[in-house]
Amino acid sequence: MVIGLTGGIGSGKSAAAACFAKSGFRIVDADQLAHQVLESADIVPQLRARWGDACLGLDGRPDRQWIATKVFQDEAERVFLEGLIHPEVARLRLLAVADRSVHHVVEIPLLFEKNLTDGFDAIVCVGCSEETRRARLLRRGLSAEDINRRINSQLPLSEKVKRSEFVLWNDGELDFLQEQVERLVTCLRGR
């Protein structure tokens, strides 16, 4: 079984993925794959050609914070970056779930935005209140302006909820989220 897991930024997708892992699922994180691709030897020169050395840290690796600021302020730059890394992320994602003897959860923040719903046995959205999302993102060190840009770059959470087969609500304690995941896993295994 392969589950697509999505939700808005700050909704708790990673927390939900960790709950699935406790239930025996192997987790594939599209953001981690994107970070891996971003630092690959063939991508770094293309980043430098586009943005110069400013996009690199002192260690010569891509400065993800600098790049995030750049792409969330300029749609054309975001399209450039996504065009550069998304095809390889998709290839790595498919390789990661090739072993169907193992259950997988694939965490993809832009699942609907990038039309990546094919190939999943179920689509699950993690949701929470707007206040909770913003508080979590502030604790991560994002400014209110950055939060607005990132939220506005995604489909509204309400739309993701409508398009999903299942919804996990993550405003409460982690134990409550774990209980929801366990019930959902029981349901999915009973199909």
Tell me what the structure shows.
The protein has 191 residues and is of the alpha/beta class. It has one domain: P-loop containing nucleotide triphosphate hydrolases (Rossmann fold, 3-Layer(aba) Sandwich), CATH 3.40.50.300. A 5-stranded parallel sheet has the order 2-3-1-4-5, with helices on both faces. The chain is globular.
Any descriptors?
191 residues, alpha/beta, Rossmann fold, 9 helices, 5 strands, 13% strand, globular
**At CATH's second level, what is the architecture?**
3-Layer(aba) Sandwich
Q: Name the helix and strand elements from N-terminus to C-terminus, one letter apiece.
A: EHEHHHHEEHHHEH
Helix percentage? 40-55%
Rg, alpha carbons? 17 Å
What is the CATH superfamily label?
A: P-loop containing nucleotide triphosphate hydrolases
Strand tally is 5
Mean pLDDT: 94
Counting H and I runs of at least 4 residues, what is the number of helices? 9
List segments where confidence is low: pLDDT < 50 over at least 5 consecutive residues.
Answer: none
Termini gap? 11 Å
- CATH topology category name: Rossmann fold
| Major sheet size, sense and barrel closure | 5 strands, parallel
Task: Provide the fold topology.
Elements: E1 2-7, H1 13-22, E2 26-29, H2 30-38, H3 44-51, H4 64-73, H5 75-96, E3 104-107, E4 122-127, H6 130-139, H7 144-152, H8 157-163, E5 166-169, H9 174-189
Parallel strand pairs: 1-3, 1-4, 2-3, 4-5
Helix pairs in contact: 1-9, 2-5, 4-5
What would a concise description of this structure say?
The protein has helices spanning 13-22, 30-38, 44-51, 64-73, 75-96, 130-139, 144-152, 157-163, 174-189, and strands at 2-7, 26-29, 104-107, 122-127, 166-169. The protein is an alpha/beta fold and 191 residues long.
